[in-house]
């Protein structure tokens, strides 16, 4: 059995609130723009500084306000929108690293960061009340994906400094694929998939917990075998907000990271083969439905499954966007197949292939701790972005 953390009791998610209430509206909410009481918030500090592997932007505010990070290609620029603030920081920030400089655009209440070339966003989050954006080297295709939409959003400021009590934080379940008697794929150089997935999961857990925005539960924290339905059951018993399964399979000729969501029919032959190789057992639905008429039960089940599908697809988009900034991707990166480990009807779930151990380049990269930390940073950013939209009630199904 997997290690059982002390925080077994979690707050019920919005999905279960929907079930308790009977019928309800899914996905309502407003994006984090100007909220009541925020008009007097002021940015009191802004600076660019060097980080271990790039450049860091730090903004400080005297009270709670919302922020939103986006990008443009022409000109190549990052934009931090701060609609609820007055600016008391420096009017201009000197250039550092890939940032040629930054300036405050007062009429539009936004900070413009001009870039000398494409960058990747290693992380963008509120840390101890401050907005911290970590910039690293990027590629033109990766930056183009950044410019296609909102990168991240959140709240910063003095009243945002207190972290929520541990038991009120959302639960993210990370599933290191395989384990114990099941080694998973054995790479061309002899690497066991179960070892790579566990090492990556432990690193991802460390990074997520350091940010303090969620609780993390691992389906396994050591080399033990957990049946697929047992992994799903862990997520459901912990009332997980999100489930992410990590793998590094074998597929001759394939290279790069990819992400999979559940579908009755596979989106392509490769996805079908991967799902078939992963599925050792199926997961029972087991969704708890209120004691109402069969007709209402069917409606509720359909609503919850649809919400789960939308949440899974949204997370897949965040994974592709964040991984694509610094990690080689498999073409058609978001794919679908009938993976048993993704079949919880009430927990948004994705399966991330971090690479293919059948490719010597992927195998060599995944055996390096710094590379696994890079993958974990991208997935941490994806989780944070997903949580922001989830909490804001944004339910874009496109």
Topology:
Elements: H1 14-21, E1 41-51, E2 54-61, E3 65-72, E4 77-81, E5 85-87, E6 92-96, E7 99-105, E8 110-115, E9 119-127, E10 130-137, H2 140-146, E11 152-156, E12 171-176, H3 193-211, E13 215-218, H4 228-237, E14 242-247, E15 257-262, H5 269-278, H6 294-323, E16 329-337, E17 349-353, H7 360-366, H8 369-392
Parallel strand pairs: 1-5, 12-13, 12-14, 14-17, 15-16
Antiparallel strand pairs: 1-2, 2-10, 3-4, 3-11, 4-8, 6-7, 7-8, 9-10, 15-17
Helix pairs in contact: 3-8, 6-8
Characterization of the model:
The protein is of the alpha/beta class and 398 residues long. It is 29% helix and 28% strand. The chain contains eight helices and 17 strands. It has helices at residues 14-21, 140-146, 193-211, 228-237, 269-278, 294-323, 360-366, 369-392; strands at residues 41-51, 54-61, 65-72, 77-81, 85-87, 92-96, 99-105, 110-115, 119-127, 130-137, 152-156, 171-176, 215-218, 242-247, 257-262, 329-337, 349-353. It has a six-stranded antiparallel sheet with strand order 6-7-8-4-3-11. The protein has a six-stranded mixed sheet with strand order 13-12-14-17-15-16, with helices on both faces. Helix 3 (193-211) packs across helix 8 and helix 6 (294-323) crosses helix 8 (369-392). The longest helix has 30 residues, at 294-323. The chain is globular. The model is unreliable at 1-39, 160-166, 279-293, 296-304 and 394-398 (pLDDT under 50).
